[in-house]
Design goal:
Distance between the termini: 38 Å
Order of helices and strands: HHHHH
Largest sheet: none
Oligomer: single chain
Structural class: mainly alpha
Length: 103
């Protein structure tokens, strides 16, 4: 079985099942927003193409793209600090994600 517990492998093809498995991750601390938690975990583990697929599943499941972390930031705030990750930021913006200052 593949899923979020497996290490990131560059160039590996991810099935829809494996991408969707990130929707079911739970934060270790109840104070952490579960939607923000799964977004961060997916961002950290997935290639841009897989992340784009994940965002589609995430939105389809009715999850919150603008969920805030403990510092009051969204996933787009986090991703936008990483200049080489514009594909991820573009995917988020296209799906309706905003920075915290825009909410």
């Amino acid at each position: 079985m593949s899923g979020p517990e497996q290490p990131k492998v560059i160039g590996e093809e991810w099935s829809d099942e494996r991408v969707k498995s990130f929707l079911f991750l739970s934060p270790y601390d109840a104070r952490i927003n579960p939607d923000h938690h799964v977004l961060i975990k997916a961002y950290q583990a997935m290639r841009a193409e897989d992340f784009a697929r994940f965002i589609g599943f995430f939105v389809e499941a009715g999850r919150d793209l603008n969920a805030l972390d403990e510092q009051g930031e969204t996933i787009l705030d986090h991703v936008s600090r990483h200049k080489r990750m514009t594909d991820y930021a573009d995917t988020l913006r296209a799906a309706g994600a905003k920075k915290a200052a825009e909410l």
